[in-house]
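Moderator note: this is an archived Q&A kept for reference. The question asked for a predicted structure of one protein chain; the sequence and the answer are reproduced below.
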Amino acid sequence: MNKYRKYKYIFLPFTVVILVMLSYLLLGRGDMAKVPWTSTTVYEQRLVHSPDGIGKFYMGREIAQVMGHMAAGWLERPSREAEEQPSKLVKSLSLKPNDVVADIGAGTGFFSFRIAPLIPSGKVLAVDIQREMLDIIDSGKKEKHITNVESVLATVSDPTLPPESVNLVLMVDAYHEFEYPREVMQGIMRSLKPGGRVVQVEYRGENPFVMIKPLHKMTQKQARKEMEAVGLVWRETKNFLPQQHIIVFEKPPA
């Protein structure tokens, strides 16, 4: 009896390994790699996945890990203008002075603070799920004396925006990290005014020479598939930035 107690914890891991191997053989590689994430078929969890992802898949795409607030300095790096040309992106939005813009995944407010002066009669809703990022934005508002940027704390499944209140939603290198992309986009659809736009900016997944980790890039085909799944209509894709798509969608008029 004492001998059994001594060795039972050694035998247990081998038993688990044998059971896993039997399951693998019985179910096949594909079934073993796919485990339901929820009771619906919208998401699935896979045991075999990229180390840069969370193992959760949506419409065939693995969701990337979120860049945490500890990397906030990378968003404000001095080389960003030369690398990404954000000034050209902002100019291309064709904003009106009274527009309400939701900057989803606002981070440090890099784009929020560049948009705010262009909409003096409107406002920017700087939306993020990390309170630490919003603290950086609130501090920046005071430092820059900007009054038309409002920080909004979202959840992983809800942007927490009022219904039909937004003219334009901007998502720059953020969407691919959404843990619940379907639910977030449904919330965004509710928040958009009829005819409102969604501008999705992502590193071009079609181009292997764009030196970004694969899960942090998206192809235009995948982006359109996911946006159209919630009722958005593709309008145009602009490719004048060095490495990123600007993909424009619209909420159909009422």
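Archived answer notes: Confidence is low (pLDDT under 50) at residues 1-39.
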